[in-house]
Amino acid sequence: MVVLGGDFQMPFYSRSRWGSLVLLGGFCLLFYLVSFTANAWFSLTMPRHQTLQLPIMFALGVGLAFGFSRATIKSAEWKIATLIFVMGTLIFWMLPRSVDWAAFDADFNRIMHVTMVVSGFLCVTALRGASVELRMAFLGMVAAMLLAVGFTLRTFDILLCSAFTISQQQETGLALLLIGGALLVAIVGVFIRSLGIHQANDGL
Amino acid sequence: MKRFLPPLAALVICVVVLWAWTDGFRAFTVFSYALNQAGPLPRAFPDAVFVNQDGATFHLQDKKKFVLVNFVYLDCPDVCHKINNRLEGIYRKLAGGIIPADLELLTISFDLQRDDVRKIKSYKQLFGEGLSGWTFALPEGMTQESFDQFLRTLGVWARRVPGTALINHSIYQFLVAPNGEIVKVFDPAREDDRQIIEELKSWVQK
How many CA atoms within 13 Å lie on the side-chain side of B38? Predict the structure, then answer.
């Protein structure tokens, strides 16, 4: 959608051809290992699937954006549209029905992998050059979502994903609470730091 | 106005995809999705022949009374037995009252490969003697495909975990009226036994 909107600039780093090939090869190798070779291992338990495989794919997308390009989405409306898409994708892959299908069906799981990589990549390109407020609002929403999902999985005594067990569901909930909490602490830290920078600038 | 279009379009796309995937934000799990897909209540209980713990075949419609139907498999390591222990509690509270005159319990096995009449008879005996209003049964004359279709029509999610004896499944309990229509679906994960008993009484005494 962003590309169709004509608002996407993707200048690549002036890296040597070999450097780019090594980076691309590394990305493809990692994707292959996580999505194909180790997929059965990752899909065996819910904590592995939701708190390892899914974030690894997102991180691969983030790494791709940092390592390969200075791609930026310029205008605020396309930044917001991209971040809404990323949030929608994250919500979709947190739904118990999606998690179940991803655990049952390796091809469906691969759709998750691809959308996670794309989301990670788009997330960086949308937040690059964005105001601190927009970054914090987005990351705050992600943290809130992780905490809400974590709380639900941790406290529900009902099996939500038929592919896994209640104890795995509760372990995943705890892990998401910790990740969401850590993200929230980091956001608050950045907020306090940015307040300090603003005050220092006002004093000049 | 043009500035609002990209975020609005992204929001609409996301909401539509999530709406379609969750059956209008009503089904977030495979269990509730399968139940919703079966259609609204009341609806007919799909016609099938069952064989009980004594080897006698029957149709549900032959009972001519309310029947509370649930599904288990006997090699289940956990939840099926917990659900049946709760059902036993419900049975004991209603026995001599609406059970067995107006209401019967029917527990059907999912496992066409491992469960048989001998196993379900022994399983029933674990709950003690004198449970005349509680039948344990297996589907009769059904292939795995036709049984899967029966479960889909009913709204029950069941899936065998590859390489194991485990079957992941819904734990819904279906209250079938004497006319063969499902009038109420209980979710024992969300409703306690007292609520289920009250609802059963109110349906039977209507």
Answer: 24
Per DSSP, helices labelled H in A69-165 are 76-92, 96-104, 106-127, 132-155
Q: Which of residues 86-125 of A touch B (CB under 8 A)?
A: 87-88, 91-92, 95-98, 100-101, 104
Q: Are B108 and B186 found together in one domain?
A: yes
| A142: in domain | yes
CB pairs under 8 A between A and B: 76
ipTM entry: 0.85
If asked whether residues B52 and B19 sit together in one domain, one would say: no
Report chain A residues whose CB lies below 8 A from the CB of B11: 84
Instruction: Evaluate whether residue B33 is within a structural domain.
Output: no
Q: What percent of chain B has pLDDT over 70?
A: 100
pLDDT, tens only, B95-147: 989 999 999 999 999 999 999 999 999 999 999 888 999 999 999 999 999 99
Q: Tell me, yes or no, whether A202 lies in a domain.
A: no
Q: How many domains does chain A have?
A: 1
**How far apart, in whole angstroms, are the C-alpha atoms of residue B30 and residue B33?**
5
Q: What is the number of alpha carbons within 13 Å of residue B99 lying toward its C-beta? A: 22
Distance of CA A51 to the CA centre of its chain: 11
pLDDT at residue A203 is higher than 80: no
For residue B99, the 8-state DSSP code is B
Show the domain range for B76: 38-204
| Nearest-angstrom CA–CA distance, A43 and A38 | 9
- Give chain B's length: 206
Angstrom distances, CA of residue B10 to CA of A71, A113, B38? 20, 20, 31
CB contact under 8 A, A96 and B6: no
